[in-house]
Design goal:
- This protein is mainly alpha-helical.
- The protein has one domain.
- The chain is built from 11 helices and no strands.
- It starts with a helix and ends with a helix.
- It is found in: Cell membrane.
- This is Lysine transporter LysE.
- GO terms for molecular function: amino acid transmembrane transporter activity.
- It is a multi-pass membrane protein.
Amino acid sequence: MTISSALLSFAVVAGMLTIMPGLDTALVLRSAITLGRRRAFATALGILCGVLVWGMAAAVGASAVLTASRLLYDALRVAGAVYLAWLGIGMLRRTLKERRRPASADPAEGAGAEAAEETWVRSWARGLGTSLLNPKNGVFYMAMLPQFIPSGAPHLLMGAVLAAVHDLEGLVWFSALIFGTQLARRWLDRGSVRRAIDAITGTVLVGFGIKLALGDS
């Protein structure tokens, strides 16, 4: 396998993984709808940084330790489950709080306050944490990435390049989602729609957390 064929083959696999509905897509969409374009891109960048870390770790064999050590895997799995549940419960609590807001109150007031509190760094950190605290990302890269490293190629450099290909595809996909969301911003700015998005995303996050805690595949 040549380097060019490895990159092309991995791009196909990573591209299919990128567009599959999942936690990353839910987080970016929620950020785009409730926090705006800049915060959504910050969240996406955090996720992509996490992917790069996992790719390089898999290339040098660090994630082999995660695969081999059940204790380490379980510790990371539980930490990830708690983190996802914490994010999801926070969104659900915010939804309930907004529903209790007096009907005469400005529905954009709560969203504006949240956007003001949510800094670019916090959005980036949320995306990064979600990516790094999911042990299944490490297992995926450990299982897939070595198959696309040609014989004789430097593992660390090749792993970084392959992860960068995945990141590039993710950036294109997330950009399409974010800009597409902005086109419907007037409708999505409604208080009822924002609450529905928070409720759905929060439920998804809690569901992912429970699934991860139970060790379901």
